Structures are given as structure tokens and as C-alpha cells.
Amino acid sequence: MPNYRRAHIPGATYFFTAKTENNATIFNSENSIIQLKQVIQETRKRWPFEIPAIVVLPDHIHTIWELPRDDSNFSIRWSWLKKELTKRYLKEGGIEQPISLSRERNRRRGVWQRRYWEHVIKDEDDYEAHFDYIHWNPVKHGYVQCPSEWKYSLIHRWIERGIYDARWGCGQTTPYVLKQTKEMGE
Predict the structure, then answer these.
(1) Residue 159: what pLDDT?
(2) pTM (2 d.p.)
(3) Measuring CA to CA, which residue among 114, 45, 53, 43 is closest to residue 74?
(4) Using CA atoms, how far apart are residues 142 and 138, in angstroms rounded to an integer?
(5) Distance (Å, rounded) from C-alpha 126 to C-alpha 128?
(6) How far is CA 18 from the centre of its chain?
(7) Is the C or the N end of the chain the one with fewer CB within 10 Å?
(8) Which phi and psi (to 5°) does residue 54 adopt?
(9) Can you give the pLDDT at residue 171?
(10) Which residues pair with 53 in a beta bridge?
(11) What's the confidence (pLDDT) of residue 45?
(12) 125 and 136 in contact (C-beta within 8 Å)?
């Protein structure tokens, strides 16, 4: 098994992708979205951080997190978030995906993929590319024609504040800034 090394930089800004096990569509119900919001709020109370961008699709999440200046431990946040959401999802009758015997022995559940994809944001251009990627992702996957049509995204906050026009990303194959990015953990 590969030895993953994560960049833990105090006060850094990170882009993350977290996927469900076997691409199960666990976020296709309003109840699952409500549970996710509650767990994120509880995670932020335990370990503060800012979320300037997030999109929740049926089988994965993309988000940008800004950690406090003296804090680099995003792993504890993801661990608790995934564990807590798994408990609530299964308690409400959610269905687990099949997992290997070794994962069962390690008390893993078939809700989330074991790992998540993480990227340290390096500069303003990198931030902008990931910020746009997050908000355009529902269009990329064919769920909507315009990013503003997807309700499980913070794009609406940024439209209200004038960062995005309400028609941004509509009818385009790929917004310009995204042409330089690779698949971001998908």
C-alpha cells in the first residue's frame, strides 16, 4: 500500500475532494444534505476553520478550507466529520457499500472512500482555479446547465456579493481558468 504524505502547514488553505464508497449517491436526499450541514457545523465548533467554497454532489464533495494560523490538523477534522456523518447516515437507514474483509476487521464502514484528496493552495491563481472548479463542478457532471442552478453550493453567496455573475459558467464547455487544471481528486 502506498505511503501517503500529507502537507500539514499551519494556517494554510486547502482544497479537498472526499468521495463516497463505490461512488454511492448518498447525498441525493435532502435529509443527507441536512445531516452533512449539521456535522460540518459541529466539526467547525470543535476545530474552527473557514469554508469559502463547497459543493456537494450526490457522490462527492469538493471544498476549500482555511485553517487558523496556528493549526495544520485538517486530518482530525476529516476523520471526525466522516465518522460522525457515517453514524448518522446509517442510523437513518442509509445503505453501506460492500467492503473488503480487511476493512471490516479494521471497523471501517462502506460509506466513504478511505482516503480523500488534498491539495495545498499555493497562490491567488491556484485559489481562483480551485474556487471556480468547485462552483462549476455540477455543470461538469451534467447535473445542471449553469452553476447557479445547483442548490448545494456556496456559489449563491458569491453571486450575492458580486464575485460571480449569475450566468457565470453557463453554456461554456469549460470556464477559461479551469482549462489549466487537472482532475481534482475525481
Answers:
(1) 97
(2) 0.88
(3) 43
(4) 6
(5) 5
(6) 5
(7) N
(8) -160, 145
(9) 77
(10) 64
(11) 98
(12) no
Q: SS3 letters for the chain?
A: CCCCCCCCCCCCEEEEEEEEHHHCCCCCCHHHHHHHHHHHHHHHHHCCCEEEEEEEECCEEEEEEECCCCCCCHHHHHHHHHHHHHHHHHHCCCCCCCCCHHHHHCCCCCCECCCCEEEECCCHHHHHHHHHHHHHHHHHCCCCCCHHHCCCECHHHHHHCCCCCCCCCCCCCCCHHHHHCCCCCC
Q: What confidence score (pLDDT) does residue 101 get?
A: 63
Amino acid letter at 16?
F
Residue type, 46: R
152 labelled catalytic: yes
How far, in Å, CA of 47 to CA of 36, rounded? 16
What's the pLDDT at 1?
40
What's the CATH fold of domain 13-180? Answer: Alpha-Beta Plaits (3.30.70)
Q: Which residues contact 135 (CB under 8 A, 6 or more apart)?
A: 53, 55, 147, 153, 154, 155, 158, 164, 168, 169
| Gap between the Cα atoms of 167 and 147, Å rounded | 8
Annotated catalytic residue: which of 14, 152, 164, 176?
152
